[in-house]
Amino acid sequence: MQTLPDISDLPPAPDLSLASTLKERITNFLNALPTMVTEFKAFISAMRILAAEIYSAAVSAESSKNSAAASELNARAYANYQGIWTEKGYLQGQSVQASNGAFYVCNVTHTNPSDPTTNTTGIWTIGVPIGAIGNINSPLFELLAKSSFIIKGVGSITYACASASTYTDRYDALQSAAINTPRFGRYGYYSEPSSTNLLLNSDTLSTQTVTVVSGTTYTLSFYDTGSVVLSGGGSGTLTGTAAYPQRVELTFVASSTSVTLTVTGTCRYSQLEAKTFASSYIPTTTTSVTRASTVCPIQVSNNMPSIKKGMTFVCDYYALGLLANTNQDLLGARLNANEYMRFVISGNTSYRLLLMIGGVAYTATISKSISIKTKNRVAFVVHDTGFVELFENGVFIGSANLGVLPRDPTMPTNMYLGGYDS
Fold first, then answer.
1. How many other C-beta atoms are found inside a 10 Å radius of the C-beta of residue 138?
2. Angstrom distance (rounded) from CA 33 to CA 27
3. How many CA atoms lie within 13 A of 63 on its CB side?
4. Which residues are 332's β-sheet partners?
5. What is the pTM of this model?
6. Cβ contacts of residue 26 below 8 Å, gap of 6+?
7. Per residue in 36-57, pLDDT tens?
8. DSSP notation for 46-106
9. N or C: which end of the chain has fewer CB within 10 A?
10. What is the pLDDT of residues 273-295, one digit of tens each?
């Protein structure tokens, strides 16, 4: 006979309310499942698009990297242009113009004298635009964004200007520089000769008569919307167009020893100077004021290569104006009247390389109409044979021949940016 278990040992009866809750949850999940599937499919699609975009961006970045590398190689080739090909060795990255007129870049340093047009050894690559000048690969000095010089060669740069001077900075704001402080504008360093503003109270100009030299060229300039009528030794009307930094100017030749300026309206930062163009503004009050010339020397030793052995000079410049029949120096070094070297703009008609060696002149003149108030890059390529080529803004302009030089000019201690200290 079996003994029945005690009722306390039996499992509890199921809770029917829990089953009802579970059924409700399963029903809700099944009802929501189609929406969840749709959202998951949308998520997968979005991930695929994102993956495609990431891949595209990666491909684009790789392409940009390759393009940048190619651009750098081209820039280096442009900056290392060696001129017409000759039978001598070349370094990797140097470029030449071959006998067929095409432009070639050297891929491997070599001493093979074969013409690059044969290109049988894989040394040369064709395709870079002829005569282009790119970023300067190894400059003597650079102009930094903080408006200062940094020397890339040997020594330091000592700027000098014996007077305070006013200028328009890279942001078109009018600034004043103390004595011996270099000025930097939108287009670089200001290199200017001395000049005198003959007007009185230049920032609040009123009618006045000024003493001038008959037969001398003068330039009147100002900012704002007023007007000035010249009479006596000058003629013409100059009308302003807008407030600073919009400047207007008028050049004339004085016909007598005095000029009267009749002023109407507002003429600010006004200037009358014995120049064929308007130089940087010189403020005045009760007397005329002279701004001293600027001098920027750089040591020659270990910086200036031998011009007899061949050299390249490249620079960027922005001309405020040009002096007729006058050589304006881009770079110059002068020991005395018998020994000097000058890279110059000659009037508005040519570039010139002027050498004086032992009192004998060697000159290369290459004709070119010179543009003002625009940034230009000019490159002089001087070969060891005395053959000189000139490029402006990447375009071959022309050539000239100095002849075989007996030696380098005897150099002074310093060369000068924008001119030499005579």
1. 9
2. 10
3. 6
4. 342, 416
5. 0.65
6. none
7. 777 777 766 666 656 655 555 5
8. HHHHHHHHHHHHHHHHHHHHHHHHHHHHHHHHHHTEEEE--SS-B-TT-EEE-TTS-EEEE
9. N
10. 999 999 999 999 999 999 999 98
